[in-house]
């Protein structure tokens, strides 16, 4: 009998990649989102996670063996983030008609577990790298912690196993996503090329010169599937990255070359993307019309604020995956291909020229 998955946040970068992976493995997949996809083979579930009664109605006929929580909501403060995101996790398990059928539930969080929330992002004493799962929680409010606590309580109440997955910046394909570095850099490079402007790295000198890593959405999907179906993945929290490390001063010229432009020298000061792209909506609409692209709305393709948060960190970010390796997950993903594969798809589907 096929495994039955509920993918919460099925239209995001993670949710789309996971849905495709599970379908390819023969799973029945229910994809939950406010506006779920109507194609691809998954069964759409339309719901707002903060509307408990509507969520209960939407899930009335859904009895998953596995739940994958791949979404979050952003609020004005971390206190509000904690309240809203904890409620979203809690509401899903409360709304499911047969939680006793669940064998395993997985929660995707991220490196803010070690770096702190956006309000205190990488501030104060620099965290030790590489990040390891054994590190204690920070003494700050963090909605990742409240999400984890809700997962642990639901698992104890209903008797299922759990896993927590902590990726670094997720690189993958999704349109309209609020945290999408690959799409953002593709738009930025296109704007630079079309206007003849220098392709300047928008991040910090630490990120330019220091070691870092990222997480391909396909790598994360494989990791989620492995933990959900492996005894070694039960009741554990895992870091998950591609498996290589790089410096942006090495990767940036390669991204530039893909778009047929040259990388500018690293500036003496950080030049964030958000103010640089703030007035580019009309320019992008013109480029979209000139090349007959599918999305003229710059805001649906680029999330400059999030890319700035990642590339502007004043600390090194290297993630240890020893725990996963020892437990049996050995998949590897080359980081340049993570970006180039997304760029190829964006071009093939006419989102960039």
Description:
The mean pLDDT is 95. This protein is an alpha/beta fold and 353 residues long. It is globular. It has 14 helices and eleven strands. Strand 4 (66-69), helix 3 and strand 5 form a beta-alpha-beta unit. Helix content is 41%, strand content 12%. The strands form three sheets. Strands 3-2-1-4-5-6-10 form a seven-stranded parallel β-sheet, with helices on both faces. It has a two-stranded parallel ribbon with strand order 7-9. The protein has two domains: 4-167, NAD(P)-binding Rossmann-like Domain (Rossmann fold); 178-213 and 245-318 and 333-349, no CATH class. The longest helix has 18 residues, at 78-95. The protein starts with a strand and ends in a 5-residue tail after the last helix. Residues 63-353 form the PRISE-like Rossmann-fold domain.
Topology:
Elements: E1 4-8, H1 13-24, E2 28-33, E3 43-46, H2 52-58, E4 66-69, H3 78-95, E5 104-108, H4 112-115, H5 143-158, E6 161-167, E7 170-171, H6 181-195, H7 205-209, E8 211-212, E9 215-216, H8 217-229, E10 236-240, E11 246-247, H9 248-258, H10 273-277, H11 281-291, H12 304-311, H13 322-327, H14 335-348
Parallel strand pairs: 1-2, 1-4, 2-3, 4-5, 5-6, 6-10, 7-9
Antiparallel strand pairs: 8-11
Helix pairs in contact: 1-8, 2-3, 3-5
């Amino acid at each position: 009998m096929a495994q039955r998955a509920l993918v919460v946040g099925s239209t995001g970068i993670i949710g789309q990649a996971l849905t495709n992976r599970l379908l390819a493995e023969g799973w029945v997949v229910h994809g939950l989102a406010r506006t779920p996809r109507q194609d691809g083979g998954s069964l759409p579930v339309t719901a707002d996670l903060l509307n408990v009664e509507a969520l209960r109605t939407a899930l009335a006929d859904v009895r998953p063996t596995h739940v994958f929580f791949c979404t979050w909501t952003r609020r004005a403060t971390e206190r509000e983030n904690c309240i809203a995101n904890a409620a979203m996790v809690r509401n899903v398990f409360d709304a499911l008609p047969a939680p006793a059928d669940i064998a395993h539930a997985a929660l995707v969080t991220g490196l803010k577990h070690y770096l702190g929330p956006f309000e205190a992002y990488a501030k104060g004493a620099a965290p030790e790298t590489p990040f390891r799962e054994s590190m204690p929680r920070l003494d700050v409010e963090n909605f990742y912690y409240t999400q984890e606590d809700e997962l642990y309580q639901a698992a104890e109440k209903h008797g299922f196993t759990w896993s927590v997955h902590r990726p670094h910046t997720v690189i993958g394909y999704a349109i309209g996503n609020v945290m999408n570095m690959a799409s953002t850099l593709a738009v930025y490079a296109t704007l630079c090329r079309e206007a003849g402007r220098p392709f300047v790295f928008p991040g910090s000198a630490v990120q330019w010169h220091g070691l870092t890593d990222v997480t391909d959405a396909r790598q994360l999907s494989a990791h989620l599937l492995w933990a959900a179906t492996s005894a070694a993945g039960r009741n554990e929290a895992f870091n998950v990255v591609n498996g290589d490390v790089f410096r942006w001063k090495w990767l940036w010229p390669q991204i530039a070359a893909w778009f047929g432009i040259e990388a500018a020298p690293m500036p003496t000061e950080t030049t964030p993307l958000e103010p640089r792209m703030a007035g580019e909506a009309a320019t992008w609409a013109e480029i979209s019309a000139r090349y007959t692209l599918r999305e003229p709305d710059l805001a649906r393709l680029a999330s400059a604020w999030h890319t700035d948060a990642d590339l502007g960190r004043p600390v090194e970010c290297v993630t240890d995956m020893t725990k996963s390796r020892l437990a049996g997950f050995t998949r590897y993903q080359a980081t340049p291909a993570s970006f180039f594969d997304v760029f190829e798809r964006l071009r093939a589907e006419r989102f960039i020229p």
